């Protein structure tokens, strides 16, 4: 009886190990497919266009949000956070806009770590600045903007994944069978 239990447990372990190995192989294949698609110049050009829209919009929002604070003699905490956040983001976003022109000219995006960090810092600080500006107007408005910003990222991510990584994505990369001898 113990031999049957041991045999069943061993079979279960083997099945689980095989499933894990297959999952790892599949994950590696999907990663290779994704890298192939993201290397596509058309995809990179679209990313550049979308980045231009994002960066330009954030610079515009920053200038509009900071303008009322230019004539103030003293700022409360939320206004100070807003001004400092945009002091960080606006120059970075402007630099990224100029860089995007070079990327568009070369028809490819840069993978420089400093640029990746600048993108993250610029976008995050702009989001903090807008949230602080709404918070300055009304705490409830700040909380609502923060929550809707998080929801907006989830909506965009969901839609992007649905559009880019659907069943058609996988069908573009059918496995080629080795010719039979």
Model description:
The protein is 82% helix and 0% strand. It has 6 helices and no strands. It is elongated.
| Average residue-wise pLDDT | 85
Radius of gyration: 25 Å
- Structural class call reads mainly alpha
Topology as a string of helices (H) and strands (E): HHHHHH
Helix content: over 70%
Unreliable residue stretches:
none
Estimate the global geometry from the Cα principal axes. elongated
Q: What is the number of independent domains?
A: 2
N-to-C CA distance: 48 Å
Count up the helices. 6
* Main pleated sheet: none
Number of strands: 0
Strand content: under 5%
Q: What is shown here, in short?
A:
By secondary structure, the chain is mainly alpha-helical. The protein has 2 domains: 1-39; 42-170. It is built from 6 helices and no strands.
Keywords:
2 domains; mainly alpha; transmembrane; 181 residues; 82% helix; membrane; 6 helices; transmembrane helix
Write the layout of secondary structure elements.
Layout lengths: L1 H37 L2 H26 L10 H30 L6 H25 L1 H26 L2 H5 L10
Helix pairs in contact: 2-3, 2-4, 3-4, 4-5
């Amino acid at each position: 009886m113990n031999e049957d239990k041991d045999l069943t447990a061993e079979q279960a372990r083997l099945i689980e190990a095989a499933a894990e190995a297959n999952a790892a192989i599949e994950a590696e294949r999907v990663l290779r497919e994704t890298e192939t698609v993201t290397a596509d110049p058309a995809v990179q050009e679209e990313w550049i266009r979308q980045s231009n829209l994002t960066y330009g919009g954030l610079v515009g929002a920053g200038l509009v949000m900071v303008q009322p604070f230019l004539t103030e003699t003293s700022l409360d905490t939320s206004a100070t956070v807003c001004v400092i956040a945009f002091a960080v983001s606006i120059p970075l976003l402007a630099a990224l806009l100029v860089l995007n022109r070079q990327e568009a000219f070369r028809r490819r995006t840069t993978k420089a770590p400093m640029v990746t960090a600048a993108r993250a810092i610029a976008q995050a600080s702009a989001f903090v600045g807008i949230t602080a500006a709404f918070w300055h107007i009304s705490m409830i408005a700040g909380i609502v903007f923060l929550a809707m910003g998080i929801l907006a990222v989830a909506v965009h991510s969901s839609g992007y994944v649905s559009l880019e990584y659907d069943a058609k994505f996988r069908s573009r990369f059918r496995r080629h069978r080795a010719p039979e001898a």
